[in-house]
């Protein structure tokens, strides 16, 4: 059964069941399916006609340029239904880059087996197009939904653009199960809390950056939350303890994945606390191996054009119990006069310090040592940066001291909920 056929089934059987809530607007499964069928081609964004494949089938890419979550979702599903290869552009991509992306796609072409495209997050450079078959998601939905405890009764809150692979996969996975997705365009955590309480949300899907915003602004318990699903960015014990206080009934589920490879490993919060630094054990049918400190993943649920065993150059090792211990991406290291400093390890250390709420490290050029680093921090109330710096100088050798630490009220985030380090570098260079 295809994704569209699944939605049609829900429309036929439970047309009045709520599929999507965006702020004050509610959309039933019947309304969502009808919106897909009734959409007209004149409302779509940009089509790249790549001619025909050898067998005469259409080869058209639909570049979706909409900021509205509902429009992004409906156009993506419409393209899937019509046989277009849909790709949602990040809102932060300007017109010049979208034109450049169209030229790249026209030049490189699209694999015949592709049903839609996804974009990398672009945190380290320009977003790149990747191509997927529908089955690479669809055939894994039951597996991931079982791990994440997602079913027809699920009310999940998430925040972010549908262009982010993690969000789009989760949204379609929840709709596949017949559950309800709740979201908002608002960046205000108080609005998130209001929606969570109003609609009795039982799941939250978010990266740690968003969870830190939530705990900073939440002054009461969210008793309805049963599960928090989080991607494997920098996680720390303090955040876990804060989440346990405001969501006393929740089970924490941490996952590690990649746009190229889908979900790879997962663990519970308890497992993470027992093995700090782990990203868990493999999902069913997924295999992992380590070679020279680099993680290799074997799965059939990957993008088109790569082998079943592949690496995205993430580093780590597998412990004696089969848990993957994650060390970051290869090259995520500062070479400070020959002394190697791991950025993920240093961020984790700084994040653990009392008084630091959020942290991000950027690499800078240094005339003497070649490379150095700057730490941007968001401090908790009443924390003093000078005392934190004093503690770092006491606990770490001088070669590991940041060149400078800069206090800011909030870390800039990309639409993919990741720290926008390109913007931090711009701020530093302008300063």
TrEMBL record:
Keywords: Ligase. It holds the Pfam family AMP-binding_C. GO terms for biological process: fatty acid metabolic process. One of its GO terms (molecular function) is medium-chain fatty acid-CoA ligase activity. The keyword Cytoplasm does not apply. InterPro entries: AMP-bd_C, AMP-bd_C_sf, AMP-dep_synth/lig_dom, ANL_N_sf. The keyword Ligase applies. Residues 120-288 form the AMP-dependent synthetase/ligase domain. Residues 345-418 form the AMP-binding enzyme C-terminal domain. Belongs to the ATP-dependent AMP-binding enzyme family. This is AMP-binding protein. It comes from Veillonella rogosae.
């Amino acid at each position: 059964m295809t994704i569209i056929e699944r939605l049609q089934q829900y429309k036929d059987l439970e047309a009045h069941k709520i599929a999507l809530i965006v702020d004050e607007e509610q959309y039933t499964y019947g309304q969502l399916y009808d919106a897909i069928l009734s959409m007209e081609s004149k409302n779509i964004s940009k089509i790249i006609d790549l001619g025909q494949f050898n067998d005469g089938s259409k080869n058209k890419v639909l570049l979706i340029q909409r900021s509205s979550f509902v429009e992004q979702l409906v156009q993506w599903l419409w393209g899937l239904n019509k046989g277009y290869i849909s790709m949602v552009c990040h809102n932060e991509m300007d017109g010049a880059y979208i034109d450049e992306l169209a030229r790249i796609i026209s030049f490189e072409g699209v694999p015949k087996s592709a049903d839609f495209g996804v974009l990398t997050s672009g945190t380290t450079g320009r977003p790149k197009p990747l191509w997927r078959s529908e089955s690479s998601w669809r055939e894994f939905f039951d597996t991931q939904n079982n791990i994440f405890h997602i079913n027809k009764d699920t009310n999940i809150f998430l925040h972010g653009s549908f262009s982010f692979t993690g969000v789009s996969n989760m949204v379609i996975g929840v709709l596949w199960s017949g559950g309800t997705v709740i979201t908002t365009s608002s960046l205000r955590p108080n609005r998130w809390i209001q929606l969570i309480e109003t609609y009795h949300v039982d799941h939250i899907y978010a990266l740690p950056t968003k969870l830190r915003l939530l705990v900073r602004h939440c002054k009461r318990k969210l008793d309805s939350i049963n599960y928090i699903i989080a991607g494997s960015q920098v996680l720390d014990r303090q955040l876990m303890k804060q989440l346990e206080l405001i969501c006393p009934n929740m089970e924490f589920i941490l996952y590690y994945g990649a746009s190229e490879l889908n979900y790879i490993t997962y663990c519970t919060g308890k497992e993470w606390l027992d093995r700090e630094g782990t990203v868990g054990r493999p999902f069913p049918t997924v295999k992992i191996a380590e070679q020279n400190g680099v993680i290799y993943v074997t799965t059939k649920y990957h993008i088109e054009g790569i082998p079943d065993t592949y690496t995205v150059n993430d580093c780590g090792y597998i412990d004696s119990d089969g848990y993957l211990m994650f060390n970051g991406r290869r090259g995520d290291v500062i070479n400070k006069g020959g002394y190697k400093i791991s950025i993920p390890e240093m961020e984790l250390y700084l994040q653990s310090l009392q008084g630091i709420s959020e942290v991000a490290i950027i690499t800078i050029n240094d005339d003497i040592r070649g490379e150095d680093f700057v730490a941007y921090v968001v401090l908790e109330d009443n924390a003093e940066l000078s005392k934190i710096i004093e503690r770092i100088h006491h606990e770490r050798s001088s070669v590991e001291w940041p060149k400078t630490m800069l206090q800011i009220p909030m870390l800039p985030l990309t639409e993919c909920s990741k720290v926008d380090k390109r913007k931090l570098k711009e701020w530093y260079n302008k300063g």
